[in-house]
Amino acid sequence: MAPKKRIEESEEEVLDSQAESSTSFISDISNNSNSSNKRLRLNDEGESVVPLFTGEIARQPEDGYLYGSIVRVQLKNFVTYDFVEFFPGPNLNMIVGPNGTGKSTIVCAIALGLGWNTSLLGRAKEISDFIKHGADIAEIEIELKCPEKNVVINRKIKKENNSTPWKINGQKATHREVNKRIAELNIQVDNLCQFLPQDKVNEFAQLSPSELLIQTQKAVGERNLIEYHQKLIKLREEEKSLLMSSKADREQMENLEKRNSVLERDVMRFQQREAILKNVRLFEMKIPYARYSVAKDEYTEAKKEYQSAHAHYNSLIQENEPVKHRREELEKAEKTSSLERKNLYDQYVKTTRQIELCANKLEQMKQIRLLKRDEKERNKRIARLQAEIAELESIVNGPPPAIDTSGIQRRLEQVDNRIRELRNSVDELQLKQEEHVDVRNNFLLQRENFIKELRQIVDVTERRLRSIQQIDHATFQGYQWVQTNKSSFRKEVLLPWLTINIRDMQYVDVIESALNMGTIKTFVCQTKEDYQTLTREVVDRLRIRINVVCFDHKQMNDFYPPVPSGQLRDYGFDCYVLDQIEGPEAVLIAICQMSGIHSIPIAKNDIDHRLVESSRKFKNYFVGDTLFKISWSRYGQKLAQSMTSRIKPASLLRDSIDVEQKQQLEHRLRNIDLKLEEVERVLRDFNEEESTSRREFDELRGRRENLVEERRKAQAALKNFERQKLTLETTKVNLQNELSKPSSTIDNGQKLKQELRQIARKRAQLFLEYKETLDEGIKLFSTRNLAALKHYQITAEIHALVRETQEKDDSVREARRLFTIADTLLKERKEKAKKLYEIAENAIKDLSDEEKVEFQELTKGMSLDELEEALANEKAKADLHYATNPQVIQQYNERLAEIRNLKSRVESLDTRLAELSSEMKTTRENWEPKLNQLVTQISQRFSESFERIGCAGEVRISTHEDYDKWGIEILVRFRDNEQLHVLTAQRQSGGERSVSTIMYLMSLQELAKAPFRVVDEINQGMDPRNERLVHSQMVETACRPNTSQYFLITPKLLPDLEYHDRMKILCINNGEWIPEKIDYKGYIQNKIQSKGT
User: Fold this and answer.
1) Whether 29 contacts 50, CB under 8 Å
2) Taking the complete model, does pTM exceed 0.90, yes or no?
């Protein structure tokens, strides 16, 4: 049930929606009666109410507020407040109220409302965590005093998207614009000297002297004071770095010079030998040029010979040109004559063939002789056939050869039967093999699929590693170094980011939020030696910023949950965060030690939060997507305070391995491998059996071939006998055919005679045609002979002309031969000169311009022989100087170059150091006097404040050669028998530290450049005497004219404290039992009367 609270209202209007809800009420009490009358008014029922702020506050220019002071604060739905508005005074404001009523909430509102983030407060991280439970939007409005018109800064906080829109004087603004406006008013909420929240009080007491100096300069020093200090720190850091570099460079330079001095004699000999070798190289480079020069002269001479031979050859060609022309004419006439002769010869041949045809027809009568010749041939064939028959009958009439092949056939059948058996056996084996091969292929396919699935699961590590490289490069570099140097460690170095796995991915957001980034990227060493190795090599030597831990003294049994896992259900929880994480034991120990996940429970559904709070077992727990943090007050009833924050979606551990699926796949893969081994064994047996059968099959096939050959040889004689019988029958048939042919010589002769009688009449005609054709042939023969004579004449003339020009042709051929030789020689010498030129150019292409000049001067005017002689002399000189190890010279030159670089660098460093020294001197002269003056003023006020409470105090500057180690030391003495001692958290008590802190802050009050200060519960832990004295000092200091505004938050006050007209007391009445309306006027009158009595 939400507490009932009072709301401020005006006479004219009441907040419509907020008035009906539970609200807060802050009353102000001032010793200034006029101010009180203005603040408090009575309604019709006689009750006092605070008027609602309705616009610009009417204040006189002399109202006492410094520019930047807070004149009004209004909160809506902020932490414990539904609605509240109050008006601080210009000087000391004391905000009082019991614990848990929301005093520190006002401090949070001032800090957040003026643009600072939640980290300043040391409380919740998310801004949305400051929204009151049950609301969606919170609002902070702060009015600041300004010269012309006050500045009203409004900030809304939205839970939906964690956004915070800003307004300045009702107009939308950006966070940067707000910060700029705040800075213009010199408000420094992040300075503990100006703004000291409750959770930062101990932090202020633990400030180092150097940190206190920085904060003090920001709070009360001139603006350029801190700038001078920061500049000196930066310059000193640079000076130290340069001094170290200069010292190292000088030492290195001296070391190198000493080492090089030992090698100077060898270097001198080496340089002398190098000079000789350089001349050798120059002579060797010049020799190709000399050879090229000789080749070039030879080429010029060959060119002249070529030109002479070419001119002689052309002159002979011109002299032979008329004879050549006459020869061409004769050769053309010879071709024409030859063609005519050929045509006449073809006609003559054709005529001759016609004459032969007629002659053949006349020779037909001679066929009778041919018939008689055929009859003689027939008689010869008959005699031959008869002789062959007689010979064959002598062979066939004898007995046939006796052959028994039954034994061979029987053995052959046995071999064939065994071959068939083997074939059947091999076929069966092949079928079985094919079946098992199919089974093996099926297993291999399944195995490949399992491996792919397993690789996809295991690939999570690779994806996480890529995320490390993108998100945190330093951690990635550290991991790479660890992987490269595994042998340097006794045990494996583990990285939670890569080694932990989430059992149930529905909890991934919770787990990542519980572990946080720092824990996930921490390297876990399992031995102290490995821890020292990793930090020494990576952190110290390589300067890679990584987190490294080692908890080898811890075991998992050391981490007890607040409630046994079996009893978590009683509180509505499902499990602990640790229950959902698996990984190496060393990693689990580390994350339990760093993040306490063994004591953080998780619930998917809503739980009874009151039961959890009342149990006081759990400080942190997760419900759904919300983190709950419980803290208990250290005062009074030690009530519980719960803070909630929405967890962000996971991004680092989103990729995780399904362990159950991975185990199933690995089990299936092992079974597949076993089955594959069995199938492979069976296939090997089948292959061996098949090989044995095939060897036997090859042996049987050889035996069968031998048996078949043996049977063939046995049957060959019988086949030959049968063939002779068949040949005898064929020969007899041929003899019978010859004998049966009739003798037709007489008949054919009679037939021819009849035919001759029939053509006798044509014979006379044929003779006439023959005579005409013969005459034509004689005429053609005569014409052909004339053409041949003409051709022979032309040919003879050509031969005579050839003989006549033979001597000239020989001269031309000789000239051509000489020309060809000259041309070939010219090309050879040109190619030779070209190659020698390329060699010479390549030899000097890498020479510098200076070396080329030296090259020309050294070899100027020397012939090839002189160069070769000089080269031999220089080589002989080089042989007299023994060769120095080139590595020694290389080391000498490298050191010499390094010495030059070091000298140049040292000179640059010295120049820069001189500049730095001058700049630091100037800056220090501007800074130190002002700082001494400031600290002297602070020390004077601090000492006076301590003297008033019967103690002693002093503030002084502690100097150091490093400006970042300059600091402010607070020295205090609380007892007469003591000396002044530096204020530390170890020597003084908590109350003494509080007194010292408030006194120091009050010493800054009059010097402050800030318009207001906030101190939260600084008086806690003081004894009544010190608290009363400190309060008196605070009232005196803070209520002086023209001092900055002061806020003191405290849960309690001593009675009868000293008050001042300029101080204001803001009482927080915020709780479950506050009545709706309070008669403050009557309450005050009653208190006055009770004191009067």
Assistant:
1) no
2) no
